[in-house]
Amino acid sequence: MQNNRLGEDNLIKVFAINVLPAIVAMVINGAQPIIDGLFLGKFAGLNAMASVNIVGPFMQVIFAVSFIVCTGAISLIGRSLGASREDKACSVFRTAVISITAISILVAIFGSVFSKGIAKMLKATDILIDDSATYVFVISFFAPIISNMYLTGFVDRTIEKPNQYLYGALVSLAVNCLLDYLLIGVCKMGTMGAALATGISYTTALLICAVPLLKKSSIINFYKGKINFKLMLPVVANGSSEAVVCGSTAISVFVFNSALLNIAGENGVAAFTIINYISTFGALAMFGISDGINAIISYNYGANKMKRVAKTFLSALAFNLLIGLIVFLIVFFAGDKLIQMFSSDPTKDAEFIKMAFNGAKIYSVAFFMIGFNIVSSGFFTAIGGALSSVLIAASRGIVWILVGINTLPKVLGIDGVWWTFSFAEACTILLTLILFAIFIFKRKRLNNRAKIEVN
Asked: What is the rounded distance in angstroms from the CA atom of residue 359 to the CA atom of residue 414?
């Protein structure tokens, strides 16, 4: 069984089997809106692309619903399997499916009914309002599909199918690119075509990710377990950090869009959109590592194999630091070429590209710090340390972002907007180190107490 390999197999092998597919799958699935932006920028113009970014916070609501249940569920499932509680693990999954479907249906109804109001609330200008509202309206109908795709894909890792999520992501990528070209480039459907392409691509991913869980022979499947909503309390509590991550992303996008509209108008928002797209690839890879180690850490923590837990965390940290260095080098030396990909006329948009490139270089400095905070938050989630994980997520995504965006631009102008990211990550590192010191102290105290009781 996959859960036995998590605790017994060579750790390098376990890490590679679980983490590498998770990285690729997370990048692909998380990049679907970016693919929309690329095609919109090329075929519908920068304003159409900016309109999708304006309503990005609504997408984060869908992701928040998904990850608060998915991450909390896989952590509890992993720890239950590690403690030989297969019945509890099955009940967690079955209850999570019902819960995530019900919540995402409510999100879908809200988004479809209040699409224009949501666009206005997110500060869509008169130029962007119609396209923004259209995207929200269409993508809302796919909220239950998106949520269940992530849940089934994450749970696949706890059985013998760690690559299933990757297969679904690869197929969805091909579908999204094809449909974006047909609906945006050929049929000229603009943001409606982009939303349809993304929604349909997630649907194909769900169909693939759900296959192993339809088999009764799988240790976790749709048929085993009891529906017990009391199990959702620890799931939601432990997955709350992921909701904070999504919520903080939504808040960040909103406050940055608002600040840039005041400083540079729609071009400022478009510049941030592209910078955000480019940086998202690196961040998604880091989140992929964080998600990939969840099953490994939660199982071994449940089995009290702390050396394997520590080695897994340090390996993930090393990978994230490497990714941060690569992103920094790519952005710093080739960022202008990447930005030009989103423009239909690079010569005409030369000033805009220059502004975006300058912002991207400043933004990229944060990647030397982002990886440490992301994998640390994921570590605490995996071991059931919900509060520590929430504090890290809130610190880097809300508290210090709000402090930075309200102070640095007053001193540095538009550059202050871009420096806000590094400011927030640096402040969060200090908090994270304190939380680890507390965790290590508590573990030592528990171990000493256990020795005394044995003697």
From this structure: 8
